[in-house]
Amino acid sequence: MNTQQLIDAEKKYLAQTYARPPFVLTRGEGVYVYDADGKKYLDCAAGIAVNALGYSDPQLVQAIQDAASGLLHTSNLFYTESQVALARALVEKSFADKVFFANTGTEAMEGAMKFARKYHVERGDAQRKNFVAFRGSFHGRTMGALAITDSEKYQAPFRPLMPGATFAEFNNLDSARAAITAETAAVIVEPVQGEGGVYPASDDFLRDLRALCDERGALLIFDEIQCGLGRTGKLWAHEWSGVTPDIMTLAKPLAGGLPIGAFLMTDKVASAIHVGEHGTTFGGGPFITSVALSVFNRISDPNFLAHVNAMGNYLMERLVEINSPHIKEVRGRGLMIGVEMDIDAAKIRDIGYTQGLLLIQAREKVVRLVPPLVLQKTHVDELIEKLSRVLAEV
Questions:
Q1: pTM above the 0.70 mark?
Q2: How would you write the pLDDT of the chain (394 residues) with one tens digit per residue?
Q3: How far is CA 227 from CA 52, 199, 270, 373, in A?
Q4: What is the dihedral of CA 146, 152, 158, 161, to 10 degrees?
């Protein structure tokens, strides 16, 4: 099928839940992707912060080939070596004592909420069943995760949602203090909000939130599905603040583009769940965890993280140099940067396609830059040149 035939077939056979541009991506190499007509695009989206190692990475390809020659699936009724190895690696390089593997970030968030509620039931405090999230948050689109996602557009058609969700103001401790009650099971926060506009939580806010949760008896859950795993220049985004959560959710880049989710937790949380109280058919399968272990070992390398920091700082410097009246603010950490505009970011995204640039937005007026973490200075310079042309055209 040519491009138009494929687009027509997509509209005929797939549920229309996505708005896609009028080209078909066929392959990728490094930080570039190519469409069916051979046009080359600098990818500043990375599959929404997923493709940390870019495209056609030789080590990742080899890891996939090696894993494919072994077990693809066994279910969680049996032990498999790669699942244990990945869990061990995650625990040894984090605050956590235990891991539960899922298939997506949303599944990880649903599981984290279940574990948080069960933790309080086990402690004889079953009235703690509610959750506090924050304005601007995004935690997923399933019924539980959607209830703690601050978006009227996403929530309205699907009410009633899971009851007991309250929203406090992001980076506002007084607002959080007013929201956390004796019925709060957990407080859920992104150390850097992604979909909400790329807003970093202040280090003081996360530190004070940790102390407040301890004072009030609520668990603290960090959603690092988008901002974790090296994206901010540290392995975990919360490391910048020097505090740790009770539970942390992960997904996007963990398997380099293959589907996996996970949530990490302390022993006090893990001990509250018993056999049969939570499960998954595919989560943590031997094929996925084998590939994810290879990806995680590379992302967690200090030299790799130093590179992310260096490229993030360079990208921030170059963005500030752009002389455009449309740019209101540049913010973020590492290679997770939001450029807030005074116009609709969708216009910039669409013109970017014509310039060979893949961009995504966050809310209405923020261009979100989450490129592969293997980005180099020459790629940053190309991005700045093309983005400058786009802004001039706008």
A1: yes
A2: 899 999 999 999 999 999 999 999 999 999 999 999 999 999 999 999 999 999 999 999 999 999 999 999 999 999 999 999 999 999 999 999 999 999 999 999 999 999 999 999 999 999 999 999 999 999 999 999 999 999 999 999 999 999 999 999 999 999 999 999 999 999 999 999 999 999 999 999 999 999 999 999 999 999 999 999 999 999 999 999 999 999 999 999 999 999 999 999 999 999 999 999 999 999 999 999 999 999 999 999 999 999 999 999 999 999 999 989 999 999 999 999 999 999 999 999 999 999 999 999 999 999 999 999 999 999 999 999 999 999 999 8
A3: 12, 11, 24, 12
A4: 50
**Structure token digits, residue 348:** 């910039």
For the chain, domains (ranges, CATH) are 3-57+302-393 (3.90.1150.10), 70-299 (3.40.640.10)
Helix axes 286-299, 58-68, angle to 10 degrees: 160
Structure tokens at 156: 């309205």
Q: Which of 306, 303, 329, 394 is nearest to 355 (CA)?
A: 394
Other Cβ atoms less than 10 A from the Cβ of 242: the count is 10
Q: How far is CA 320 from CA 309, 332, 336, 388, in A?
A: 17, 12, 15, 11
Residues in the chain, overall count: 394
Q: How far apart are alpha carbons 4 and 391 in whole angstroms? A: 29
Tracing tokens 């009235």 back to the chain, one arrives at 127
Mapped onto helix, strand or coil, the DSSP state of residue 325 is coil
